């Protein structure tokens, strides 16, 4: 009879992707079936059973893997996207549906390019792992497998390893640090959106757990000072010319606090500091409410005088960060 958790071995066309001479193969130029075979080989190198699926009626599955770990293991559905451009959020949603339909424990989406913030936001807290091209090459190398990406592949969509928060590249010079404080034990992600009106300038201007700073470096997540539970550094003078507001939001971290809401987000405030850490002002923000998972803390808005003024927020979102960022124009899976 059939066994859902243990995929049947399916022959792979060709001999594995690491066959052949010469240097490391360009992942974007490999035969598609060989590329899927390479991904399956990567899972096997990590101690799992893994096979590629047949070409038809596979329900969107490219590789099935079985992690033998009795606690964290189980059936893993793997989809492979050999793209040069950013993988659309719809692909992440489709994978999630496939994982649920197959009764799998986890889904993994592997690509040669990268993912936007909408995809990471959707995947956060779900049994999904997104592997970008840069991460794939790194994993292959660690497991003794060969593969490279041609120069420039995926550069526009793979979050780069950026400089340390204390570096002065990009924004440089004068800046403010916005230190977040609150009572209660709820675990939160504090994020920022650089907007014109109510729309974020671009996906890269959403600063969150997988994109720690904007392209020009004007807004970035930083460790903060003593007493801060989270912090964002803003160089207002270095913001893009079209930006007229910086929106600060908080959302329950679904991995640390699954099922949590913002009822435990109380006595919240923002400590406005200068570059030296001297506290200039303390800005009050709304408490969270039961049933809400994300909250607009407030926004700094550019006035005609050229000054930036803080306007308190308070709008909550039962749909979490996913619903919040959609309202600001970010496509979510």
From TrEMBL:
InterPro entries: Restrct_endonuc-II-like, Restrct_endonuc_IV_Mrr, TerD, tRNA_endonuc-like_dom_sf, Type_IV_Methyl-Rstrct_Enzyme. Residues 184-328 form the TerD domain. Residues 1-25, 151-175 are annotated as: Disordered. Residues 28-140 form the Restriction endonuclease type IV Mrr domain. The lineage of its organism: Bacteria, Bacillati, Actinomycetota, Actinomycetes, Kitasatosporales. Pfam families: Mrr_cat (PF04471), TerD (PF02342). It comes from Streptomyces sp. gb1(2016). This is Restriction endonuclease. One of its GO terms (biological process) is DNA restriction-modification system. Keywords: Endonuclease, Hydrolase, Nuclease. One of its GO terms (molecular function) is DNA binding. It comes from the Bacteria. Gene3D superfamilies: 3.40.1350.10, sav2460 like domains.
């Amino acid at each position: 009879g059939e066994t859902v958790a243990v995929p049947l071995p399916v022959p792979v066309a060709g001999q594995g992707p690491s066959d052949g001479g010469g240097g490391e193969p360009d992942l974007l130029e490999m035969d598609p079936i060989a590329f899927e075979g390479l991904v399956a080989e990567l899972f096997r190198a990590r101690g799992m059973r893994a096979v590629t699926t047949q070409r038809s009626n596979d329900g969107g599955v490219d590789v099935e893997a079985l992690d033998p770990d009795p606690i964290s293991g189980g059936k893993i559905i793997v989809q492979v996207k050999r793209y040069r451009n950013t993988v659309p959020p719809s692909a992440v949603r489709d994978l999630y549906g496939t994982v649920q339909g197959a009764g799998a424990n986890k889904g993994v989406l592997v690509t040669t390019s990268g993912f936007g913030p909408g995809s990471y936001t959707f995947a956060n807290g779900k049994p999904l792992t997104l592997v970008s091209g840069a991460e794939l090459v790194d994993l292959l190398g660690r497991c003794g497998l060969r593969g490279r990406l041609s120069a420039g592949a995926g550069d526009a969509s793979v979050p780069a390893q950026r400089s340390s928060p204390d570096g002065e590249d990009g924004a440089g010079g004068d800046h403010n640090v916005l230190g977040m404080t609150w009572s209660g034990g709820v675990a939160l992600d504090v994020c920022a959106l650089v907007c014109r009106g109510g729309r974020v300038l671009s996906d890269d201007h959403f600063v969150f757990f997988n994109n720690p700073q904007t392209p020009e470096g004007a807004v970035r997540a930083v460790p903060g000072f003593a007493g801060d539970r989270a912090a964002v550094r803003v160089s207002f003078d270095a913001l893009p010319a079209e930006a007229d507001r910086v929106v600060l939001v908080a959302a329950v971290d679904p991995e640390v606090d699954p099922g949590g809401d913002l009822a435990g987000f109380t006595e919240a405030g923002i400590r406005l500091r200068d570059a030296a850490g001297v506290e200039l002002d303390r800005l009050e923000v709304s408490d969270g409410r039961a049933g809400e998972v994300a909250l607009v803390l407030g926004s700094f808005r550019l006035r005609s005088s050229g000054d930036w003024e803080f306007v308190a927020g308070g709008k909550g979102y039962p749909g979490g960060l996913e619903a919040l960022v959609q309202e600001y124009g970010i496509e979510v899976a």
